[in-house]
Amino acid sequence: MKYEAVIGLEIHCELKTKTKIFCGCATEFGAAQNTHVCPVCLGMPGVLPTINRRVVEFGIKAGLATNCAINQYSKFDRKNYYYPDLPKNWQTSQYDLPIAEHGWVDIEVEGEKKRIRLTRIHMEEDAGKLVHSGTTIKDSTSSNVDYNRTGVPLLEIVSEPDMRSAAEARAYMEKIKAIMEYIDVSSCRMEEGNLRADINVSLRPVGSEELGTRTEMKNINSFKSLEEAINYEIERQTEVLEDGGHIIQETRTFDPVRGVTLSMRSKENAHDYRYMPEPDLPPIVTAPETIEKYRRELPELPDARRERLEKECGLSAYDAGVITASRAMAEYFDKVTATGAEAKLAANWIMSDLAKNLNAEGITIEKSPVGAERLGQMILLIMKNTISGKIAKTVFQEMWTNPASPEQIVNDKGLVQITDTGAIEKIVDEVIANNPKAVADFQGGNKKAIGALVGQVMKASKGKANPQMVNKLIAEKLG
Ligand code: ADP
Ligand code: ZN
Ligand code: MG
Predict the structure, then answer these.
(1) Pocket perturbation via mutation, ligand 1, pick of 10, 204, 230, 237 by most ligand atoms within 8 A of CB
(2) Is 9 in the pocket of ligand 1 (CB under 6 A)?
(3) Ligand 1 contact, 161 CB (< 6 A)
(4) How far apart are the CA of 42 and the centre of ligand 2, in A?
(5) Is residue 156 lining ligand 1, measured as CB closer than 6 Å?
(6) Domain check: are 89 and 192 in the same one?
(7) Interval 396-431: pLDDT, tens
(8) Rounded to the nearest whole angstrom, what is the distance from the C-alpha of residue 264 to the centroid of ligand 1?
(9) What is the pLDDT, as a whole number, of residue 475?
(10) Is residue 203 lining ligand 1, measured as CB closer than 6 Å?
């Protein structure tokens, strides 16, 4: 039988507020253990939470940016379970009246557009973090709890089971990440765990409308793991079904080192959590004017920006998609083109040489040693024919470690392109004299032989001769 994969994601997105969701403790990442805590987030008896207004604002903005309906009347609920990183023994979350519901985002995989529906977005508090003496809980002799993360605000963004492949799930998560970055509600640093996904995967016979039994992989925090975990799980479930077995509904972990998923525990159901309304917090009632105010405050979103770069700047759909997938890159691009640099050249330099250098050093575009304005100035030198595209690569590498302006570097290193006809002609004559074979080939009708001659001239001029002029001169001289 042929099976189809069905995938749904629950994405947890840590919000960029200064303080926690129900108390005034700082949310800052990386502080000494248990220094950002107070009686409220430690769940001491008798304390009362107060809701951080910004969390509601961010929840509503996230809902609006993903085409959700906003619930003007929303409330918090307690999700009860016991674990050492949860001092109250319940997580304050939302159950039946989340802040936003029924949204959608569009994704594109291999040129095909698809709409992925969002079930809901709800607000909740994060739990603390277990710090094991070993590498995992299994090989540790002791574990400590760090409560700094307890009470850090989260949005949980739940999708419908609308994805059919690892590539679609990745595109969906990339889109959510881009949107959250654009509306500035989260720093979305996956390596710090501020954006992580629980992935639900099931199979069903192709053509069937019914959902199969699913497994869930929790806390996936990189795109690579997301794709690997899904692909592994699809393969594993296919084998089980083809052997006549049944899928067990369970929670599995993904081991990124071995690239496999492993059974962890049978999956809990909603009734296991004994959800109940949170009596210590009033319901959240939001006036329509407030929702409209937040809507007006939303910036241009990734899809709109992408369309603008295609229409106004003439970028290809692919280039515009890459540039706008990250807000920081889109802003960098805008600053490069603001210098007068041509859009297509700007996109090429950002996506090739700049991206390569950033990746090699593991730094983000905001920290690029070559700022947008300097890259723009360098592109202007190419456009003015002061340097060739090839020489520009040398200039760019020099700019990476040398803060001087591109003009300065070009002058200091003597990289100015030779556009003086006399100077180029002299080299052309030498090359023609020294390469009788290529000349004969060319004159004998092999037009491609000109390439070898141009190459020789470029080499003799250390790459500085203007290639168009070289081509033209050789063609003229050889008739
Ligand atoms: P929970 O996992 O907390 O019990 P839900 O039942 O609402 O919550 O489902 C969570 C996620 O699992 C959603 O993203 C949903 O789309 C997805 N999902 C539900 N059923 C299936 C299924 N049979 N196969 C794949 N994904 C599913
Ligand atoms: Zn606190
Ligand atoms: Mg779940």
Answers:
(1) 10
(2) yes
(3) yes
(4) 7
(5) no
(6) yes
(7) 999 999 999 999 998 888 878 887 888 888 999 999
(8) 17
(9) 87
(10) no
Q: Taking residues 20-47, report their average pLDDT.
A: 95
Q: Which of 445, 3, 32 is nearest to 203 (CA)?
A: 3
Q: Is residue 370 part of a domain?
A: yes
Q: How many domains does the chain have?
A: 3
For 336, the domain range is 302-412
Residue 261 CA to residue 230 CA, distance in Å, equals 9
Whether 195 has a pLDDT exceeding 90, the answer reads yes
Ligand 1: does its nearest atom lie under 6 Å from the Cβ of 98?
no
Q: Please, which residues have CB within 8 angstroms of residue 5's CB and are 6 or more apart in sequence?
A: 164, 165, 201, 202, 203, 230, 234
Query: Are 190 and 270 found together in one domain?
Result: yes
Q: What is the pLDDT of residue 288?
A: 97
Which ligand does the CA of 39 lie closest to?
2
Where a domain ends, among 394, 412, 430? 412
